[in-house]
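Collaboration report, partner site 2.

Our partner group contributed sequences for two proteins of shared interest, and the home lab folded both. The records are reproduced in the order in which they were received, starting with the first partner submission.
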Amino acid sequence: MEKTSRAQLNQLRISPRKVRAVANLIRNKKAVEARSILRFTIKRSARPLAKLLDSAIANAEHNAKMTAEKLFIQEIRVDEGRTLKRFRPSSRGRTSPIAKRTSQVTIILEEYGS
């Protein structure tokens, strides 16, 4: 039986395209290595992803009795969340739509060697 742990972040107010750029940096990496990569990444989505990774590691240690040094990121998925629709005034009395996109991030950790 495979030991896995997961954590999910809902309604992150950053566009999924921007979050995926950072998520691709840590895909299929060891959890400890991914933590240090996120620490030195200068992107706005790096901090929420680091907190999500720490949450997934804590879930693995507490719920499944796994060790942090043996964990790796089996899957990290960035899906599109709800889109907030806003409008900006435009010329000649018109309005222009603005789509404020949100992301839903799911991270699944697995213990290698199991």
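Second partner submission, folded after the first:
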Amino acid sequence: MKGTCVYLLRSLNEPSHHYIGRTEDLKRRLAEHNRGAVGHTRKYRPWKVVVAVYFEDPRKAAAFER
């Protein structure tokens, strides 16, 4: 999909841990989370996408993420 994506991840090892983020390439970003490249999510990997919402307007995506 095209646009800016706001996504919710859930840890597979610690299902009570979630992470909300924003990206234009969800597949690449999920791979970064799962290989430990993101400090906030490194400890609870692996992650899976629970929800992904796409926006044409990046400002609306940023507002939704907040």
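Feedback sent to the partner group on the second submission included the following. The mean pLDDT is 96. The longest helix spans residues 26-35.
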